[in-house]
Amino acid sequence: MAARTFSRRNLRFLLHEVLDAASLCTHPYFAHHNRKSFDLTLDAAEKIARDLLGPGFEEMDRQAPTLESGKVRVHPSVARVMREFGEGGWIAASFAEAHDGLQLPLTVGNACRFIFAAANYSASVYPELTAGAAHLILSFGDPALIDTWVPPMIEGRWQGTMALTEPEAGSSLSDLSTTATPAGDGGYRIRGQKIFISCADHDGVENVVNLMLARIEGAPAGIKGISLFVVPQKRIGAEGALVSNDVTVASLYHKLGYRGAPITELSIGEQNDCHGYLVGEPHQGLRYMFQMMNEARLGVGLGATAIASAAYCAALDYARQRRQGRPVGQKDPGRPQVPIIDHADVRRMLLFQRAVVEGSLALILQCSRWADLAAVSDGEEKEKSALLLDLLTPVAKSYPSEMGILATSTAIQCFGGYGYCEDFPVEQHYRDIRIHPIHEGTTGIQGMDLLGRKVVMQNGKALALLAAEIRATIETARGLSALDGLAKRLEEALGTVERVTGHLATLAMEKGPETFLADATLYLELFSIVTIAWQWLRQATVARAALHHRAGRADADFYAGKILTARYFFAYEVPKTEALARRLTDNDPLTLEATGASFSD
Amino acid sequence: MAARTFSRRNLRFLLHEVLDAASLCTHPYFAHHNRKSFDLTLDAAEKIARDLLGPGFEEMDRQAPTLESGKVRVHPSVARVMREFGEGGWIAASFAEAHDGLQLPLTVGNACRFIFAAANYSASVYPELTAGAAHLILSFGDPALIDTWVPPMIEGRWQGTMALTEPEAGSSLSDLSTTATPAGDGGYRIRGQKIFISCADHDGVENVVNLMLARIEGAPAGIKGISLFVVPQKRIGAEGALVSNDVTVASLYHKLGYRGAPITELSIGEQNDCHGYLVGEPHQGLRYMFQMMNEARLGVGLGATAIASAAYCAALDYARQRRQGRPVGQKDPGRPQVPIIDHADVRRMLLFQRAVVEGSLALILQCSRWADLAAVSDGEEKEKSALLLDLLTPVAKSYPSEMGILATSTAIQCFGGYGYCEDFPVEQHYRDIRIHPIHEGTTGIQGMDLLGRKVVMQNGKALALLAAEIRATIETARGLSALDGLAKRLEEALGTVERVTGHLATLAMEKGPETFLADATLYLELFSIVTIAWQWLRQATVARAALHHRAGRADADFYAGKILTARYFFAYEVPKTEALARRLTDNDPLTLEATGASFSD
Q1: pLDDT digits over A510-543, tens only?
Q2: Is CB count within 10 Å lower at the N or C end of chain B?
Q3: Which of B154, B180, B201 is the last residue of a domain?
Q4: Is A206 in the same domain as A96?
Q5: What ipTM describes this predicted complex?
């Protein structure tokens, strides 16, 4: 695909003009970077996306992985992707220099990942998973573990994975039953079954390093008895050679989309010869894993945003070229047909896609910036950044995933019948993105996480911090022409979130947690719309300032388009908050009253 | 698939208890039918769905049609489907006895089509298209045309199609350029290109009869110069044998879903030897075609409803069986996991699907009943039925299509990762249903049709009739426990539609048609929600009466479930009307202000 899959102007607008990414470089850890080096990094990412990832987009989907004699065969470009990502330093980009990393801020690293995923989501997953797994070992493993497993991963020779899910333990991780038996030599023997494990075997690498949750024999039941292990596909034998570690692929899933990457079912230790290496302390596995999980959740939101971006770019290009129909009220068939972008309803559909894509990307890069500050700053700023990141991770995971599905569907609609056909990329985008509300915690799980844990943690401190951030943006926008109305509506909508939260907190005390959380998914949606509205008001504020101070002609269109898209979001999306609030406060516990019999016929 | 794909209890509830289908039999045209014969017909349809259609559901998708040496090869079961539908009288079921039909009310005929499409949507299209095309010839063709073309179609030996779309004339039918040249012998020679024509060639039949729009040489430009022709794939030669009619398949589309049926691109008259036979009068083609188009639009809504029904049944069965997690607040890992239907959020997802499926089906059967009454009754009832059918056809086409996509997506979500895999049918349902907001007029077109034509026709008479119908239901429900609150909210929501309609009418006068219609798609959504809310209140009213008078234990659960689903619809869906109304009355013409430059970067 030579076609554009994202807007570089927008990416730089968000990084430099909205988030001032270069300001991160005042922290010693990032001091050797600057705005120019960030731009060079983005250019390099774009080149890789264009030359290495993009060309395989369609073919990796059409030639999906196969399982042959127990070995997963993937598209030949995967081996090249892993090698070039390793050689180019992309896998270790955000790691410390001490670990061969570049100490690149995640803000910029995630901007690069966005570029990669927009070109070819499936291909981008292989190195991204490897980076997450390596980071997990670096964070909690002892030096020997790090020295053994991490270098080949960041070189792109070995694949990393996260191996949590089991047949009886999907959303319910406390039911994990994979066991780790002490082997007497300080190591463990692992036995169990894992399902839905991405990239856990393929012929594009020499080895696979699974970061796996298992239960040490005799451990407490539930989540308090889960430990984290390195469970490689091949372990290092006596002579230093790789030997089989009794991890076999039981089956390969055939999927709706995301077909360029294999998802596997693993049988572990069927021969009682699977060695596992404990990471950190026993029984701390879930806590450790949540480092990778939280990174992955941000990554899921980012991947969904990237797919929706590619679909939006395709729809926009098509809408500019495809001629069909005439303006309402000018039906003279003697006049030429107009490009469909001239129809108000098509522009509405394009604005919807843009609002979702650029609103989501703004939030994810904002979250990435908080992740950077949580890592390198101190005191209040560190705590605040960590709390905001924690609070908004479920939003950054689920909003792009859920709304990205609607955005890619709208991209198909812009194409009409052509969008339903394989000649254009949008049908693949539509298939690819459907995984995102499922993997790394379904939307339902994210809703429970937001309302049941994040909003209430530390007595609502994170929510108070977010409200203060949002009100600061409102203050900046208030009184400015074109933005004053938006500022007022955001204040209203934020008030709605606070009112609903208070209502639900009362409900929790009066009726208990089940009633409190029954509509957590709707609360998540309400909360997300307000969060994205905030991101749009911020962008509009920056765009308005730029328009008044320094924009040339081309840039003027860009900035005016930003303000228009913000208006779109407030006119079409923000009103949904009232409908959600109405349900969330109507005190009709109908989903709790319902039973299996309610569905009988 | 042996699995259930629809609720027979619900279908009978709608037909007999809500719509009193047997009352149609008081009309002489339907007098030889009765409730019992209707039930026998439904049973027969169910048997065909189970034995003939269902088994091919997955295989027809996996073994999609191919184009070999100019001939489209389809799954072998297609030939059997066409033959058995012909022999069983299904294709002609609603036709007059004089034309070998059964004079079956469309109300019951569409219930059967629902059963067929729920088992295997692609397979159901072949006979349904044939029936629509045959009906068009019967309605407007002369006796010779009827005698020649219709009998083999209703016997299932020849396939019927509707051939409208061209490369430059998709949504814009006025730009049709296929030409018909008088041949001197009373016939015409056709020349042109058609795209996206379903089933226009396949090896399951001996011949294909395309009902094709073309422009007679010298005809006026635009829609006033379009005529309707029978353009067969093979015409009847001198000796009565079938000879090639110069209609060739230029290509076959490879599609996201709906793969069991071929969609073709046709080259017509490349050798100047394509004979076309005029149907009815010249230049009346679009008016004639709209008979088939309106039937097809109802059929699209029905197909979408059927697919969503199959997905819902699969999700419901899975949710009853799959155990995962424990109730909120009871996290003891020592206790067994519960079926996921025990989680409030899963029940919410199931109620959403049920509300969409059964609300849509209720509306479509109601529309079918109006179609029957428009055909067989007289005077005021005839006019009223025709107006209501006309008004609600865009709703019946688009609501099930748009919401069915969300319902099938929610079905996937109920399955979690398994829903994304080919082992379960829901990923195919999700692909199959995505065509429905596109074919036979996109949702954008339906919105323009509803607001720009149907609502304003005869000074708003149809809307006034609908409002009266809705208020009659409200009156019945008012004051009844459990329903009084719903009745009040429907009254409010109907008031919202009326207020918004008035606002837009004023806008039309003050600002012109472009402003009036800019958000017609949102108006359609608002209108649809209120229409479906009405259908749910009707169902709840009937269910409540049944509960109070005569329900046994099993039936009591069914009726209570109906009332619960109605509550769901009013609690979760109806509030969306306020958000839509807010946008529709906020007087910010932002999609009209936007230009191509607004999207520049």
Answers
A1: 999 999 999 999 999 999 999 999 999 999 999 9
A2: N
A3: B154
A4: no
A5: 0.97
- Residue B459 is given by DSSP the state G
Please state the rounded mean pLDDT for residues A124-137: 97
- Do A130 and A185 reside in the same domain of the chain? no
Contact yes or no for A191/A183 (Cβ under 8 A): no
CATH no. for residue A235? 2.40.110.20
Give the contacts of B565 (CB within 8 A, at least 6 positions apart).
B351, B354, B355, B358, B536
Beta carbons of A247 and A210 less than 8 angstroms apart: yes
> DSSP labels for A158-225?
EEEEEE--BTTBSS-GGG---EEEE-SSS-EEEEEEEEEEETSS-TTSSEEEEEEEEEETTPPSGGGG
Identify whether residues A261 and A178 lie together within a single domain.
yes
- Provide the CATH number for the domain around residue A78: 1.10.540.10
Q: How far apart are CA B282 and CA B289, in angstroms?
A: 13
**A550, pLDDT greater than 80:** no
Evaluate the CA torsion angle B112, B117, B120, B122 in order and state its sign.
Answer: positive
Per the CB < 8 Å rule, is A254 touching B422? yes
pTM: 0.98
**What is the structure's pLDDT at B592?**
96
B422 contacts on A by Cβ (under 8 Å): 254-256
**Cβ pair A594:B174 closer than 8 A:** no
Q: Tell me how far apart the alpha carbons of residues B349 and B355 are, in angstroms, rounded to a whole number.
A: 10
Beta strands in B42-130 (DSSP E): 66-68, 71-73
Count Cα neighbours of A168 within 13 Å in the Cβ-side half-sphere: 12
pLDDT of residue B203: 98
The reported pLDDT for the residue numbered A338 is 96
Chain B: residue whose CA lies nearest to A258 = B420
Q: Which of B368, B357, B356, B374 is nearest to B392 (CA)?
A: B368
CA distance B284 to B227: 6
Interacting residues of A331 by C-beta distance below 8 A, sequence separation 6+: B174, B222
Q: pLDDT tens across A281-291, in order? A: 999 999 999 98
**Chain B contacts of A58, Cβ < 8 Å?**
none
Integer angstrom CA distances of residue A443 from A257, A268, A293, A449, B354: 19, 29, 14, 10, 20
Q: How far apart are CA B23 and CA B14, in angstroms?
A: 13
Q: Which residues of A fall within a CB distance of 8 Å from B420?
A: 253, 255-258, 434-435, 438
- The closest of A129, A131, A98, A102 to A44, measured between CA atoms, is A102
Give residue A551's pLDDT.
Answer: 64
pLDDT of residue A1: 44
Structure tokens at B7: 């609720």
Angle between helices B553-568 and B344-376 (to 10 degrees): 90
The string of pLDDT tens digits covering residues B140-178 is 999 999 999 999 999 999 999 999 999 999 889 999 999
Q: Is residue A83 part of a domain?
A: yes
Active site annotation includes B491:
no
Range of the domain at B243: 160-283
Which of B345, B368, B362 has its CA nearest to residue B533?
Answer: B362
Closest-approach residue (CA) in chain B for A437? B413
Q: Which amino acid is at A462?
A: A
Beta-carbon separation of B423 and A254 below 8 A: yes
Q: Which residues of A are catalytic?
A: 440
Report the amino acid identity of residue A221.
A
Measured in angstroms, the CA of A244 and the nearest CA of chain B are apart by 29
Confidence check: pLDDT of A305 > 90? yes
Residue B572 has pLDDT above 90, yes or no: yes
**A575–B567 CB contact, under 8 Å:** no
Number of domains in chain A: 3
Task: Choose the closest CB to A351 out of B195, B558, B594.
Answer: B594
